[in-house]
Every structure is written in structure tokens, then in C-alpha cells.
Input
Amino acid sequence: MFRVEMFDISADDPQRAIRFYEQVFGWQIRKWEGPMDYWLIKTGEDAEPGVNAGLAKRENPSQFITPFISVPSVDDYAAKVLAGGGTIIQPKMAIPGIGYLAAFEDTEGNTLGMMEKDESAR
Output
């Protein structure tokens, strides 16, 4: 079985969203030092149940919150998504120093992501 690794929040105004989540829930949010504007969100202590998150500027109106499932191979699981009747909506892309991700739509029209950890990703 593979678990939800994180969720991704899309925001029209990232700074406004950051203020909201820090003030309302006390989440710790810091800018990622990677090649794109992205913020890492710590939603609680590592020993507590739950998942952390990320936040980015919304790229299109249909983007909302996307859960990401940790998988051993984005390529293998993209093939499984297609074989199961789903659709790949964001092909595999590298996140330097983190790994690879892709987004898909399930058979019910829900958007989810999958993430393969690989620090050598470029």
C-alpha cells in the first residue's frame, strides 16, 4: 500500500494564503530554496499523525488542493493509472533534489498526484 505523502495548496495570492494558514492553524511555512516559487508547510510535529504540505501560485482556475501519493516509480504508476482507466494530466517532471511527480485524474474526475523520491532528480 502507498500512503498520501503530502498535499499541495494552490493560491491566487500565496502571501495572503501563507498569512491565513499561519494565523489560523499555526502552521510553519518557509520558502523552498529550489528553482521555483514554492513554500513548504509543516502542519505538525513529525511524531504526530498527519501529513505536511506545500503551497504554490495557482496556475489555472481548476487547481485546488491536490493530495500526493508516495510511489516507488512515477513511470510504473502512471502506466497503472492509465490501465485502470485514469488520465495523466501532468506528465512526469523533475523537482531538483526532491524527486519526480506527475498528476492524474481518477475514473471519477478527482485530481491527485504521485511522487517518487529521488534526491538525484534534475
User: Anything to note?
Assistant: The chain has two helices and eight strands. The first strand starts at residue 4 and ends at 11. The beta strands are 4-11, 28-31, 39-42, 52-57, 65-70, 87-95, 99-105, 111-117.
